[in-house]
Amino acid sequence: MNEFHRIRRLPPYVFEQVNKIKAQARANGADIVDLGMGNPDLPAPRHVIEKLVETAGKPRTDRYSASKGIGGLRRAQAAYYERRFGVKLNPDTQVVATLGSKEGFANMAQAITGPGDVVLVPNPSYPIHAFGFLMAGGVIRSVPAEPTPAMFPALERAIMHSVPKPIALVVCYPSNPTAFVADLDFYRDLVAFAKKHEIILLSDLAYAEVYFDESSPPPSVLQVPGAMDCTVEFTSMSKTFSMAGWRMGFAVGNERLIAALARVKSYLDYGAYTPIQVAATAALNGPDECIREMRDVYRKRRDALVESFGKAGWDIPVPEATMFAWVQIPEKFRHLGSVEFAKLLVEKAEVAVAPGLGFGEHGDEFVRLAIVENEQRIRQAARNLKKFFDSADSTLHNVIGIKRAV
Predict the structure, then answer these.
(1) Distance separating alpha carbons of residues 172 and 81, to the nearest angstrom
(2) pLDDT digits (tens, 9 = 90+) for 235-285
(3) Candidate CATH numbers 3.20.20.60, 3.30.2350.10, 3.40.640.10, 3.40.50.1470; the one for domain 46-285
(4) Is 234 helix (H, G, I), strand (E, B) or coil?
(5) Do the bridges between strand 200-204 and strand 168-172 make them parallel or antiparallel, or are there none, so unpaired?
(6) How many Å apart are CA 68 and CA 270, to the nearest integer?
(7) What is the value of pTM for the model shown?
């Protein structure tokens, strides 16, 4: 049977190859330190859970909810933007609640993409940034991921050599997977570029609150005057409040684009379960000590990762933000590529990582490490790695011999 057209456009999910080996190793009794999926292990804040419990089970809250989010939740998100970024939003026309930022991106792609439309996407980047548009019938053109002035000549070339002209540019800072952080000067240039070429700017700000320099929290592109004319920004409660499984996020910004997203969503869903939306409202309106505690936990884990992996012989660039480190594969293993290296780490070091190829072909010399295990487990991973690296020459010899035999 022929494969369905949309499925054919999607490459194999490379993370699944590593996940299968990880599952098999665990089934055989291995104690895998899992730094692969960015799945927060911290509990959601107590007051948020209490609000969920208080609201669940009431007859009215078991009914269909509001696709674009209940009014109180949209007002809470608008208040957060004003408090955190100094950006004023109309909760009725410039805010939509989404089922996480991933769903928001995918449905925005459905809303704005016609067959063959070109979208500029960083490479490497979080998979939905590209595949949301591919599934919607669009075409992806890769651009650099690092937010420096060097990005703009590449963007200009991409505009010049794309037929038809691109309709949108995706950015994500703090970045998953690279942990790059953008400043307001970069965003000013970005908005000017988008307006000059009349393209839509789609910003993923899911890691806005996971940063480690308290003196310079990551900005929103919507802080730039005029950004609202062409921009939609996506945020998520998954990392800020450790609510990943709750599937709660937002799209905010340009009224016309938000209306298009809301229209698509109205055909597809009735919004998140109402008690989840009420609890999310309590999170946004509540005290922020839990956010500071989350940052402190990730900072300590980041420092443990950098220190212990460095001692094991693998230098980790110090991430300024996110719960990830984006790390080049050690030179002697680089020829294997990220998928085979990630498999090797599971088999020989009992450590799981995310292969960089899963974020785009320009990520294949890297792996992403998620600091979703505690400091003790991170140091255990480092000890495992050191043993593996110390025996690496014989391991590589065996791997190469097996490949040649096959």
Answers:
(1) 17
(2) 999 999 999 999 999 999 999 999 999 999 999 888 899 999 999 999 999
(3) 3.40.640.10
(4) strand
(5) parallel
(6) 8
(7) 0.92
